[in-house]
Amino acid sequence: MQTWRYLLLPFSILYGAGVRFRNVLFTMGWFREQTFPVPVITVGNLKSGGTGKSPMVDFITGHLSADHKIAVLSRGYGRKSKGFLYATPDAGAVSVGDEAMQRVNRHPAWIVAVDENRRHGIQRILTDYPDIEAVILDDAFQHRYVKANCNVLLIEYAHFFRSNFLLPAGLEREPWSGRKRAHIIIVTKTPEDARKAEMKPILDRIRPTPNQHIFFASIRYEAIQPVWPDGHPSVSSVSGKNILLCTGIANPEPLIKYLEQAGNLVTPMTYPDHHNFTDRDVKHMITTFQQLPVDNRLFLTTEKDAARLRTPSFKALLENARPYYLPISVVINNNDKQRFYQIIESHVKRDPIRS
Length: 355
Hints:
This protein is of the alpha/beta class. The protein is built from eleven helices and 14 strands.
């Protein structure tokens, strides 16, 4: 741990005390949690970013949408607009945020909306779509002004093998005790080859209550796709390439490691999470990319970053670079996928919470 983080520990103690006091006020009813006439499922974490919320929201929504009319609501991090907006394929990340654009680009038929006021956002969706059967809130575990039928808490596998401190000394938004509010706890980014013996210490650390369900999930990298599909040649394999990897995500290290293990030489260009790229950024990317060997170079980014790069002005600048993105998906480990589906379904079919 860097020395400067130790200097911030007193502030982390004060922050933790404030979060605990706030939670007590909600538990005692001093702060009111609003209920809605349809089930609400929250997906969130204790850490600030990097646990895989977006693919997990998509994983849950994708399953439920087969038999139910579902809406997804997020705050819209990184956008330059305010208030309630629906994400449409032509909305743009500047208006609705990169995660909402990523979601609607992949699933144009989904109802995806953003609103920093989650209560207002849910009510607006229910007004516009009276037949909605459930609302999924992205990154809302700490948003206790909405009473959820099901809280899905994501904890990164690496969390259990490092020191974790509350903000501002660390990245934890809530004390470890906050996990007790979750109905489902998912240990994300678990190695697919992890044995049950390796999972037992994690289960011992979580100490789930009888009403909590624990799952382990992995991230699976899919075939790369062009940021702009028109005129781009297909790339069947990402191996043996000189890759310029441009990312504006919370933690690019697992992706860099994956690409290097596949036999690639990776030149990373990292930006802050949800970074709004500028023309200057893109020109710097192009200059760096042009310095790589011509015959086997590849411009690669993430699906979330692709949503922010996909603008007309950037398309003109990046035309010769032919950028691609690497999609990811969620895999539930230990053949637990059907059990997970059954539990999620039970929360949608259950009568919504009544005030």
